[in-house]
Amino acid sequence: MKKITNFTFIMFIALALMLSSTNLVIAQIGVVNETGGPLTEENMGLTRPDADQLNEDHGAVETWITKWYGLDGNYENNGGFNASGPIDLMALGTNDQITDVSLSTVDGLLMTQDIDVEWPADNGGTRGWTVFEINPDEGNNMVRGGAADNFDHYAIIVIDSPEDMTSVMSPAQDDYAQIWINGEKWHNNSRWTGGAKVVDYNVEVELQKGTNVLLFRCGEGTGSAYFNLHFDDATHNAVTIYPKDATDKASFFDEIAPLTAVEAAGKLTTTWADIKRK
Fold first, then answer.
1. Residues 6 or more apart from 33 whose CB is under 8 A from it?
2. pTM for the whole structure
3. CA torsion sign, 177 to 180 to 181 to 187?
């Protein structure tokens, strides 16, 4: 009887630890309140998700992404995010060689090795590509030495996934977040969150085995100017996110070279072609 009691006690402790760990994940991620993506043509405009805002404090999360690949400056004098949000600024600056959507594919990403973005002088002029780091606690981490108001910001990560997987991404932004993965739009929220680490929508997304390109475009009006992103713990434990050790464009492409081989590029090109035919 004593052995049974000890066994029961041990099982109780194990269950308690498991539930404690589960509760910690729930506390960090919260309710998954945006599902059913990617978005369709009908809901890609300047809108908010249908789900209620969560206003979750993710301040305790340690996996906020700090290293990004993107432009070395922002699109300035955008007239406010309501005006700039529906405009494909990437197409505008590259004579349609790269678009917002194609930039979230391997083919589009590879084109940034040779193509700078050339906006009018009043909007920032010529912008090159680089690796930069942000502080997730900083309420103006998109400014990066340029204009503090009325601009659009572009940032990219590459996610190497060991398998096809359903993940949960948690963005925070001020003001207008648009997020694409592999040529498909997964999040479109034109309202700012309540703080740099406050999350309103935990978004269920699909990652494919191998290379995934994520583009986070954020439009700013006035006031705070931040963008932040993390995934659920299971995703962060399974995948590798780039830039990792890279510090500039050249070292970034050296770092992701094994992921952008012909086979991977061909796979994503097919995905992008399928989307254009819809």
1. 49, 51, 52, 54, 201, 202
2. 0.85
3. positive
May I ask the CATH architecture of the domain 32-277?
Sandwich (2.60)
Spans of all domains in the chain: 1-30, 32-277
Helix (H, G, I), strand (E, B) or coil at 44: coil
Q: How far apart are CA 58 and CA 81, in angstroms?
A: 25
How are beta strands 203-207 and 176-181 bridged, if at all? Answer: unpaired
User: What count of other Cβ atoms lies within 10 Å of the Cβ of residue 264?
Assistant: 18
How far is it, in rounded angstroms, from Cα 21 to Cα 223?
37
* Tokens (6 digits) for 85: 């949000």
Output the tens digit of pLDDT for each of the chain's 278 residues.
444 445 444 444 444 444 333 333 344 467 999 999 999 877 777 888 888 999 999 999 999 999 999 999 999 999 999 999 999 999 999 999 999 999 999 999 999 999 999 999 999 999 999 999 999 999 999 998 899 999 999 999 999 999 999 999 999 999 999 999 999 999 999 999 999 999 999 999 999 999 999 999 999 999 999 999 999 999 999 999 999 999 999 999 999 999 998 434 455 444 544 544 34
Q: Please check whether residue 65 is in contact with residue 131, taking contact to mean a CB–CB distance below 8 angstroms.
A: no
